[in-house]
Amino acid sequence: MQAIIQTHNLRKVYGMGDIQVNALDGVDISISEGEFVAIMGPSGSGKSTLMNILGCLDRPTDGQYLLAGEDVSGLDKVHLAAIRNRRLGFVFQSFNLLPRTSALRNVMLPLVYKRSEKFTTREREEKALAALEAVGLAERAEHEPNELSGGQRQRVAIARALVNDPVLIMADEPTGNLDSKTGDEIMALLHELHGRGRTIVMVTHEQYIADQTERTITLVDGRVAQDDKNGGH
Ligand SMILES: Nc1ncnc2c1ncn2[C@@H]1O[C@H](COP(=O)(O)OP(=O)(O)OP(=O)(O)O)[C@@H](O)[C@H]1O
Ligand SMILES: [Mg+2]
Q: Where are the domains positioned within the chain?
């Protein structure tokens, strides 16, 4: 299967002055299309740093990152933003929805930023509604975030991540702010998306959440300490 993510000796050094932090210290990973992968590791081990680079939000100091075969390690901010828009969907621990803005408008946002394809407002609304339907929230399209439960907010965020039809969904602790029952509902939704062929990379601190994915990559001190297939898969 084609590798959607391939890194070679990925390094990230913060603080180029007196004190240097090797946040990523030579990371080699390969993730195939359609995989559901959990990233674990202690606080400060480099998980968010890795997610930021894999999600084209930041660049490595050194090493190579191929996204769907394309070398994106040296791209500038403008080009990285274009790649993000075209290929990636993001889900964050804190949902990151716009307040006082309907679920539908929130889900439409990535399409508004997408300059390469010109959609009419009508087309954007239809796509956003289809994404809300996919997460079971079509009837809440006109609700604002403060009129929704935590789990519903995260489902809106997932709909927003899906609306671009991304090749890769990046989720940084998507269940971190949810009670366990609501977290289970979000996991069920991610499983469903995975079942429909999406590639998902998810950071979690919870072993029982990681156990539900196909593979767990554990970082320690900016290096891959473990990379295991999970039981049941
Ligand atoms: N902008 C920055 N400037 C300097 N150092 C940074 C910066 N961001 C992160 N670091 C350092 O890089 C290392 C990795 O940080 P990172 O945020 O990737 O860890 P993490 O695994 O996501 O931790 P957590 O589980 O606490 O979220 C840490 O030592 C951190 O202090
Ligand atoms: Mg982090």
A: 3-229
For residue 11, give both structure tokens. Answer: 């390094």
The model carries a pTM of: 0.91
Distance 56 CA to ligand 2 centre (A): 16
Per-residue pLDDT of the chain (233 residues; tens, 9 = 90+): 689 999 999 999 998 778 899 999 999 999 999 999 999 999 999 999 999 999 999 999 999 999 999 999 999 999 999 898 888 999 988 889 999 999 999 999 988 766 656 788 899 999 999 999 999 999 999 999 999 999 999 999 999 999 988 989 999 999 988 898 989 989 999 999 999 999 999 999 999 999 999 999 999 999 999 999 998 55
Query: Which CATH topology does 3-229 take?
Result: Rossmann fold (3.40.50)
Pocket of ligand 1 (CB under 6 A): 14-15, 21, 23, 41, 43-49
